[in-house]
Write a structure and sequence with these properties.
five-stranded mixed beta sheet, alpha+beta, about 20% helix
Length: about 240
């Protein structure tokens, strides 16, 4: 039996959590589709989330963010060319940074679709970013970070919002989720301190320097090693 459903009905009707595999499994369509992800209702809801418009003011907000060129205190505009631009972001309680030129887009969270026989702790699945299908990874699992459960009060601050970021290197694009993203920051070479031995003791440490930023220790990641191991771990 063919099921006809509008996009609005699918988004509002989360039947998969009520009578489907996430609920009491009383849905009669389970006999036909086996799993909710095979059902047209579930598919329509997924399309609705992937194709939804960006929140009002979101594009302007991030246009302004990436247009910023903040200088370290005491620096002049002429010294700007000597600095390294980075974007700082948070995973759990860890503050991390990567070169700003790797970041192509910052978006609201999107639905991650698993890939049969391919999804694992590193490769979570695929996401639709403005019509482009991209691989989504778990950066926290790749780095071996322990992410604590989010507190119930974590969503009370409207400024702190989860995001998905798109990074690219050597024409390879990846998506990963972060708990918070800061604006572009610039640091002089002398502000990149050697990583402590407790961090670098691993044979596969991704931290090549530490930055002090707003009284926080930020791990500046080795992007060459990071992208190398993304490819190695998911193929």
């Amino acid at each position: 039996m063919k099921i006809s459903v509008t996009l609005e009905q699918a988004i509002l009707n989360d039947c998969w959590n009520k009578i489907g595999v996430g609920g009491d499994r009383s849905c009669k369509q389970l006999k036909t589709y086996i799993h909710c992800r095979n059902c047209p209702v579930y598919s329509a809801a997924g399309r609705g989330l992937l194709e939804r418009d960006a929140p009002e003011g979101y594009i302007d907000e991030w246009t302004d963010l990436f247009a910023q060129t903040q200088l370290p205190e005491g620096s002049s505009q002429s010294e700007n060319t000597k600095t390294q631009a980075v974007i700082i972001f948070r995973l759990g309680v860890e503050w991390l940074a990567l070169p700003a030129n790797l970041f192509k887009e910052v978006t609201p969270p999107s639905v991650i679709h698993t890939i049969p026989h391919r999804t694992n702790k590193i490769l979570l699945g695929i996401v639709n970013i403005r019509g482009e299908i991209l691989m989504c990874i778990s950066l926290s699992n790749l780095l071996g970070l322990e992410i604590p459960e989010k507190s119930k009060n974590s969503k009370s601050n409207p400024v702190v919002q989860e995001r998905m970021v798109v990074v690219e290197k050597n024409e390879e694009r990846w998506v990963f989720s972060v708990d918070e993203v800061s604006s572009i920051q610039r640091f002089h070479p002398h502000q990149f301190r050697p990583a402590p031995a407790v961090i670098t003791q691993s044979n596969e440490s991704y931290t090549k320097a530490v930055i002090n930023w707003q009284n926080k220790k930020v791990s500046y990641l080795d992007d060459e090693l990071l992208f190398y191991n993304i490819n190695r771990r998911i193929t």
